[in-house]
Specification:
Keywords: Membrane, Transmembrane, Transmembrane helix. InterPro entries: YczE/YyaS-like (IPR038750). Pfam families: DUF6198 (PF19700). The chain is mostly helical. It has one domain. Helix content is 74%, strand content 0%. The chain is built from nine helices and no strands. Helix 2 crosses helix 5. The longest helix has 25 residues. It is globular and about 45 Å long. The two termini are 16 Å apart.
Length: 222
């Protein structure tokens, strides 16, 4: 494979591709599909934990979870779990319906964030912390692409975003930006870490997800 072919494989994808493991409905379960889903959510959680341990700034929702840990006796994993449950409750007035992937998202991402923060060492210099952040963003992008292509239901945050969009008519991008800004500010006020890693996440996570969606689309179309 030459350089141009490698670059071609890394071209971001504009949509969510249909893959051999994509479900027909949110509760269309099989052993292989559930295994792929769980793997993707585990990768996502471990990627998020790398951002945390990099100590250069977290993704907005993790800033909030970390802020909650500063004001309570909760660990980062439990704080993430409880925030996800709270966000899922917002689905009720929005009339959104969870899928198997939604519920798995709540449990497994929190679990693997908890595992990762105990396995990966905390970094105390900017260079190593930035490397952790970049690797974390890569893994979150990979994990997101895997679980999204399973088609078993949106995560709590994505469901809240689309639900608010459909209820208000406000553009999805603006809704997501508004949610992320509010969450980031709340987390920062509570004591969560905001920094270089936060900026890198905001700039790169969309491309990271899109690149892996493109890789899956090209690999499964052959």
């Amino acid at each position: 494979m030459n350089f141009n072919e490698i670059i071609g494989h890394l071209k971001p994808h504009k949509t969510v591709p249909s893959t051999p493991w994509t479900a027909k409905s949110r509760w269309d379960l099989s052993i292989s599909r559930v295994a792929i889903l769980f793997f993707g959510l585990a990768i996502f959680g471990l990627g998020d934990s790398l951002l945390i341990q990099g100590n250069t700034g977290n993704a907005p929702w993790t800033v909030l979870a970390q802020g909650v840990t500063q004001r309570t006796d909760l660990t980062i994993g439990w704080a993430t779990f409880l925030i996800s449950v709270f966000v899922l409750l917002i689905w009720i007035p929005l009339k959104e319906r969870p899928g198997f992937g939604t519920l798995s998202n709540i449990v497994l991402i929190a679990l693997f964030i908890e595992i990762g923060t105990h396995v990966f060492p905390e970094q105390n210099n900017l260079f190593a912390g930035t490397l952790f952040a970049l690797l974390g963003i890569t893994l979150v992008g990979l994990g997101s692409a895997i679980y999204i292509t399973c088609g078993l239901g949106a995560g709590p945050r994505d469901g809240a975003m689309t639900g608010i969009h459909f209820k208000t008519g406000i553009r999805v991008g603006r809704v997501r930006m508004g949610i992320e800004v509010v969450v980031l500010l709340a987390g920062w006020i509570l004591g969560g870490t905001v920094g270089v890693g936060t900026a890198l996440f905001a700039l790169l996570i969309g491309q990271s997800v899109a690149i892996f969606l493109g890789i899956f689309a090209r690999l499964t179309s052959k």
